[in-house]
Amino acid sequence: MAALPTVRWGIVATGMISSWFVEDIVLERQDAKVEHVIQAIGSSKLEKGQDFKNTFCPKQNPRIYSSYEEVYGDADVDIVYIGTPHGYHYRDCMQAIAAGKNVLCEKSLTINAKQAKEIFEAARAKNVYVAEAMWLRHRPLFRDLGRLLHQEKAIGDVTRIFSDFASGVDIDSLPPTSRYRDLTLGAGSLLDIGVYALTYTILALEGDAPGRSEFPHILATQTHEAGIEITTSAILHYPSTGRQGITTCTTKTFGPPGEVFAVVHGTDGFIEIEGTAPSIPLAFTVYSKQTGIPERAYFPKESFQGKRYEFPNVGRGFVWEAENTALDVLNGRKESEIVPWAGSIRIMEIMDEIRRQGNTVYPGERRRD
Ligand SMILES: NC(=O)C1=CN([C@@H]2O[C@H](COP(=O)(O)OP(=O)(O)OC[C@H]3O[C@@H](n4cnc5c(N)ncnc54)[C@H](OP(=O)(O)O)[C@@H]3O)[C@@H](O)[C@H]2O)C=CC1
Ligand SMILES: O=C1OC[C@@H](O)[C@H](O)[C@H]1O
């Protein structure tokens, strides 16, 4: 069998998400298209980096550094994966780009749209690849959902969507330095989990070209506890199509596990999406409109069999993102088709407007009325 092309990752930060990502990409898979090498690990402490390697990629032989800058300076690193809290994404992306590195950076890409635009401008100037690690967009479920909605028009023309991400975090019990509490790290439910609920909304309402349609009218409200935004509700309305979405998120409670977290309605039916969490969707069901009885165009759900599509997870679900990103870099692309720059800017702009209305301001930002 021909050897697989190799991509050499530099991992920046050794927190939870970096461990999930690295464990997944070193999984041995029959259908792998790329061999992922963990070339370097950068951490605030050398011992943390060493422990990380021993625990999450024991068969790899990375260089372990006690700074992120050394990862950026390592000539054998093809792409840097940034797993720091969102408050540091701008700094870390800019430093990696300045060193000429390709970058895959965790969601939310930045704190605001201005920072995201500056990152993309810097990447363009340096001719390097940058993408936001919105792993949801790389999942086969998400791709098939988009195709059914917009190419096959399985529910006719999309008219609206409800989408939610509820995740119970006992913020009070966490130390003030936790990324769920520290505003300099980007604490708040919208940037942490609302970004997923919005990703479904944008897929449904903006179609396959996120960020290229008109900007929606937005009506939003946010609740804060001890200065941290813990609950957001937003209505998005696209005037030219009349499409509407209600997008909500909260860190105050868990949604029912495995239950529906988003529903998309169209002129000919609706689709329910479910899974472990909105970031880990596992199935959706398409319900079609009944014809011939105009006043009862839909059966009550209990007596109606929808068509269910299931999508098993592989590992934790990061392999698709890692593989698509590696192939982009190996093929010399500078931008992901799946998570394009315009899409990341659009979602940051929408979150900026929601935060403006909700009065959520991060350090270094000016309050806008
Ligand atoms: N795609 C997904 O499903 C998920 C994505 N995420 C995203 O990943 C990012 C990180 O989240 P998560 O891994 O949960 O966070 P953690 O707190 O677990 O880890 C963050 C790591 O960043 C480094 N770091 C640098 N400066 C700081 C600082 N001042 N305070 C704390 N940590 C710092 C540390 O690594 P070191 O000491 O090694 O330098 C730390 O371990 C966030 O942007 C989040 O939105 C999070 C969870 C799931
Ligand atoms: O990306 C994420 O997905 C799962 C959540 O629990 C986590 O807080 C968030 O960062």
Automatic annotation (TrEMBL):
Domain Gfo/Idh/MocA-like oxidoreductase N-terminal: 7-131
Key words of the record: Oxidoreductase
Domain GFO/IDH/MocA-like oxidoreductase: residue ranges: 149-271
Single Gene Ontology MF annotation: D-xylose 1-dehydrogenase (NADP+) activity
Entry keyword annotation includes Oxidoreductase: yes
InterPro entries linked to this entry: Gfo/Idh/MocA-like_OxRdtase_N, Gfo/Idh/MocA_domain, GFO_IDH_MocA-like_dom, NAD(P)-bd_dom_sf
Keyword Oxidoreductase part of the UniProt annotation: yes
EC number(s) stated in the UniProt entry for this protein: 1.1.1.179
Alphabetized Pfam families for the sequence: GFO_IDH_MocA, GFO_IDH_MocA_C3
Sequence intervals crossing the membrane: none
Record field: catalytic activity: D-xylose + NADP(+) = D-xylono-1,5-lactone + NADPH + H(+)
Family, as annotated: Belongs to the Gfo/Idh/MocA family.
Protein name per the record: D-xylose 1-dehydrogenase (NADP(+), D-xylono-1,5-lactone-forming)
